[in-house]
Amino acid sequence: MVELRNVSVTYSNGVDALHDINLKINDGEFAFVVGDSGAGKSTLIKLLLKEITPNTGHITVNGFNLEKLPKSKAHKLRRTIGFVFQDFKLINTMNVYDNVAFVLRSIDAPIKYIRNRVPYVIGLVGLKDKAKCYPNELSGGEQQRVALARALVNDPQLIIADEPTGNLDPKNKFEIIELLKGINECGTTVLMVTHEHELVRYFGGRTIRINAGKIAFDDYIG
Ligand code: ADP
Known about the structure:
α3 runs parallel beside α5. By secondary structure, the chain is of the alpha/beta class. The strands form 2 sheets. A 6-stranded mixed β-sheet has the order 6-7-8-3-9-10, sandwiched between helices. It has 7 helices and 10 strands. It has one domain: P-loop containing nucleotide triphosphate hydrolases (Rossmann fold). The protein is globular. The site of adenosine-5'-diphosphate (ADP) has 12 residues, from α1.
């Protein structure tokens, strides 16, 4: 669950990036976050990951009260969140299997678990036959699927996808959202930031529009 109560962020240069935000996203929801460039979307994501702290207000993410969570323990929060970026951010010197396994190895997961879990999630995103390929041998859509597998492998409570379709062609845009929807149907909360209004209209569902640091719209469409 994600909850923001009366949250405001003013950067040190005086820019009011978010102003008195109240927002609740329940476990198991799928929500689109839309808004023009500069609206405050990235600031919202940074707050949820505790990369920045608000000037005022209260934030809870996956059971963590962020006010009480010291920066030194923020990794515990981040382990409950899977992140998908616009530009994939895969490690080019590692094959698909290792890009995904890396997440589990870095938290010292048991080897047996890694050997079961990694092929399972690679299969979930439809890349069973590409496990040995390197990122430069994959299409953009396939690379974003690897990024999705990487986000999923640690069984996060929440997936934050920041413009995940931004670098993809139309067919792959739809496929990535279909995959995110499927992941959501299995119980993971999904927050997807996008500026692609056509996709939002096509898929529908909860849509949160941020405009100049305020929530201008939060309702179900479609
Ligand atoms: P979006 O992700 O919707 O494009 P941002 O959250 O990045 O919007 O930015 C919201 C506002 O805060 C913008 O006016 C932006 O210029 C400003 N801003 C973002 N990051 C910083 C920062 N680190 N320091 C100062 N101002 C910032």
